Amino acid sequence: MIKVERLVKTFGTTKAVNDISFEVNAGETLALLGTSGCGKTTTLKMLNRLIEPDSGTISINGKNVMEQEPEALRRSIGYVLQNNGLFPHYTVAENIAIVPNLLKWDKAKTDKRIKELLDKLHLFKDYFNAYPGELSGGQQQRIGLARALIADPPVLLMDEPFGALDNVTRTKIHHEFKELDELKRKTIIIVTHDVQEAFELADRIALMDKGRIVQIGTPAELLFYPANDFVKDFLKEQHLQLELKTIKLTDIWQYLPDTGKKINTSQVPASAGIWDALDSYKFYPRENINILNQQSKEVRSVTFSQLMSAYSHYKNHQPHE
Amino acid sequence: MNEHQQTLWEFMQQQSDKLLVQTMQHIGLTFISLFIAVLIGLPLGIYITRKKQLSGLVLGIAGVLQTIPSIALLGFMIPLLGIGAKPAIVALLLYALLPIIRNTYTGITGVDATVKEAAVAMGMNKWQVLFKVELPLAMPVILAGIRTATVINVGVATLASYIAAGGLGEFIFGGISLNNTNMILAGAIPAALLAVLFDFLLSLVQNLNFKKVKGAVKVAPVVLLVLSCLYFIPSAYGSKLTAGFTPEFMGRQDGNLGLISKYGLKIHTIVINDAVMYKAAQEKELDVISGYSTDGRLKAYDLLVLGDDKKIFPPYYAAPIVREDALRKFPELEQTLNKLSGLINDSVMTELNYRTDYLHQTPERVAKDFLEAKKLYKPDRGGNEGVVRIGSKIFGEQYILASMYTMLIKGYTNYNVATKTGLGGTKIVFDAMTNDQIDVYPEYTGTGLLAILQAAPQTVTRLQVSKDSTYNYVQREFKKRYKIKWLKPIGFNNAYALMMRQAQAKQLGVKTISDLKRYLDSK
Questions:
Q1: How does DSSP assign B283-351, residue by residue?
Q2: In the predicted model, is pLDDT for residue B409 greater than 90?
């Protein structure tokens, strides 16, 4: 879907982006992860030509972006900014309708689509005529997302979209983000410096440093097969948490004891990470939780210590670490 | 003083049609120039946000224009644009440019970079970004600039009357020349009210929310145009010739009033400041101007004094007037000032004026040369027994006389001298004297009689028998009312005169005011 080859961008004497190549498949979410100044935002902005590359090629859907008119290109790509970039002098409805108006949609079509999106994003219609300044940060960011999605572009670029939000709001929006059906069929590139966010939202992660991609792969690949010390160090601090999120219950299924007990409480799907299972313990002695394996329709009821021992078994059977 | 002291309200009622016309002209002038300034300043302000390297230069030039004194700027305009509306509008718009350009620039560069990036990323082209994002968001700042420019323009527009462009300045400067406080206030109060009113109205627009500003901005050009239309160009030529008279001449019995009542002269007349009047005559913007019999510029600009065959311009003496308490404080002052008495006759004064007005010699040099020729000059004794304060009005002759008095006092007495020259008009210099700010200045008995004492018409007629009867009358009245003494006359006559360019007068066969009237009346 998106193919980037040998991309270079120099500002003055610094090579902000130094010979980068990667591909993103249709429907996939790629996170560009790295510290500030690593070139991730520059890379993103070259995709919709907010920044013109010095050399290299970018093609989206088989078409070279450099051969398209920049305005038309940008209208066909959704873009979400860190500080939402909403127009303070436009109402919520006018903000969301920017691209439809540029594309000269008729008003009825635009209004219908806005209503649909606001509904999906759990925003009330009362906000229609409010100005962005009257909304909370989380609401503003949802409006920013709605603005990017309105014309249903196949590609969505997100520049630290949740960076300015507080933790609670961010977690909530992450959750909504994963649930939103509109996003499931989109090819998404998301720029972030937040390791957790990248692990949570992305199918694949490109870890960048000094204008180059250090490693590109799935979260598990980065975690368990780090290409070098830089990758290892980058993930070190949150390693345990990342592991618990990355390793799914299905991965350790074989180490979970089959106790046969089926206490009638709520069930955790086995497709979830260990972290989610740990989250559902209420922590009183001798507590069990039920884990449902959707494929085999089997339910296993395990205690906290049984779960942790399965995790440690799994770890011991990994090839290295 | 007047038999009945007229109140300001009575004056304004009596002059209500003039007041209305002047107010309309004032509003019109302000907004025509503002409108053009917006048309130029706004695009220029936008342009320098795109070409940042030019911003310093453009803002610098606009800033320098702002610092040119208004009257000087108006003066520069005459050779280029003549007198009347055009140069006034150009001068006003130059003053209005800086706040408009600067605020447009500041407003647009101050728009949140994220919002601009969002606009580009949504697929807007550069014009859409400008009109849909940058201008609307910069609008409060731009409006603040326009508001500043409006208030500046209302103020500077009072000076438009200097170059015959009308406006409330006609009353203000007329009042200053004629020592008429009511007239000054009748111009100054409406001007101040206009400034406050427009400032208030624009502050309302500025504080509207985004939605309403969109509407207001669309209406603004229409409102500006309508207000601009209030200014109908006052120099619509009504007769074959155009006269330009000073505000003082306009209001005096031995001036325009006499021309109308005694000669029945009907000529299209505009009010203009003395400083630019001669220039305008030379540039053929004006055909007939008011002036003085001893005027140095007669020769300088090749002008002809028209014969006053009906004797409406009586000759008056020029003499120093001094506060009586100053005469007591400086016992040697009177005899020192009187050294000049009788020494300067009409042709000498005209010659001296010519040297300053045309040859551009300094008044000090002209004064010194004259005193040396008369063997009166003595070097400064560096005295320190008190300071005599000498004043003067703002034209060459007064500067020369003030310089001579300064040299005489410094050379013959042990007093020191402080000069306060260039005091704007009769009212300013005379008020300075009655308020004990100056001790002595040269004055003319005619001005004393008509502008300061404001003698009744029958008194004026009675006194016009001779120069001496006027001199005696003002000397008596000044002593009685103001405790100010008229010293001995300097010698030359001071009388108003009508002047035309030599060449034109010859061509039209005009030698006297009656000739002029006959020419104007003939079809």
A1: TTS-SEEEEETT-THHHHTTEEEPB-TT--S--EEEEEEEEHHHHHHSTTHHHHHGGGTTTB-HHHHHH
A2: yes
Question: Residue A304 corresponds to which tokens in the numbers above?
Answer: 């906290």
Closest-approach residue (CA) in chain A for B118: A85
CA distance B157 to B167: 7
Mean pLDDT, chain B, as a whole number? 87
Sketch out chain B's domains with CATH numbers: 2-235 (1.10.3720.10), 242-312+498-522 (3.40.190.120), 318-493 (3.10.105.10)
Chain B residues closer than 8 Å to A84 by CB? 114, 118
- The confidence score (pLDDT) of residue B1 equals 42
Q: What integer is the mean pLDDT of B178-187?
A: 86
**Start-to-end Cα distance in chain B:** 43
Nearest C-alpha of chain B: how many angstroms from A72? 6
How confident is the model over A156-184, as a mean pLDDT? 86
State whether A86 and B118 contact (CB < 8 Å): yes
pLDDT at B523: 60
* Angstrom distances, CA of residue A118 to CA of A99, A131, B495: 16, 15, 87
Question: Do the Cβ atoms of B115 and A98 come within 8 Å?
Answer: no
- CB pair distance less than 8 Å for B125 and A84: no
Say if A102 is an interface residue toward chain B (CB within 8 Å). yes
Q: Which residues are CB-neighbours of B109 under 8 A, at least 6 positions away?
A: B49
List the one residue out of A122, A113, A155, A154 whose CA is nearest residue A141.
A122
% pLDDT > 70, chain A:
95
Q: What is the CATH number of domain A248-317?
A: 3.90.1280
pLDDT band at A108 (very low <50, low <70, confident <90, very high): very high
Those of residues 126-155 in A touching chain B at CB distance below 8 A are 131, 147
Q: What is the pTM of this model?
A: 0.76
What kind and span of H or E run contains B471?
helix B467-482
Q: What is the pLDDT of residues A255-266, one digit of tens each?
A: 888 766 666 566
Could you tell me how far CA B98 lies from the centroid of its own chain? 24
Q: Do A85 and B117 touch (CB under 8 A)?
A: yes
Average pLDDT, chain A: 87
Sorted by where each begins, the domain ranges of chain A are 2-244, 248-317
What pLDDT, in 10s, does the model give residues B221-242?
777 777 777 665 444 445 678 8
Residue with tokens 């728009």: B111
Indicate if ipTM > 0.85.
no
Q: Tell me whether residues B122 and A89 touch, CB distance under 8 A.
A: no
Looking at domain A2-244, which of 2.40.30.10, 3.50.50.60, 3.40.50.300, 1.10.10.10 is its CATH number?
Answer: 3.40.50.300
Residue (of B440, B360, B450, B437) closest to B404 by Cα position: B440
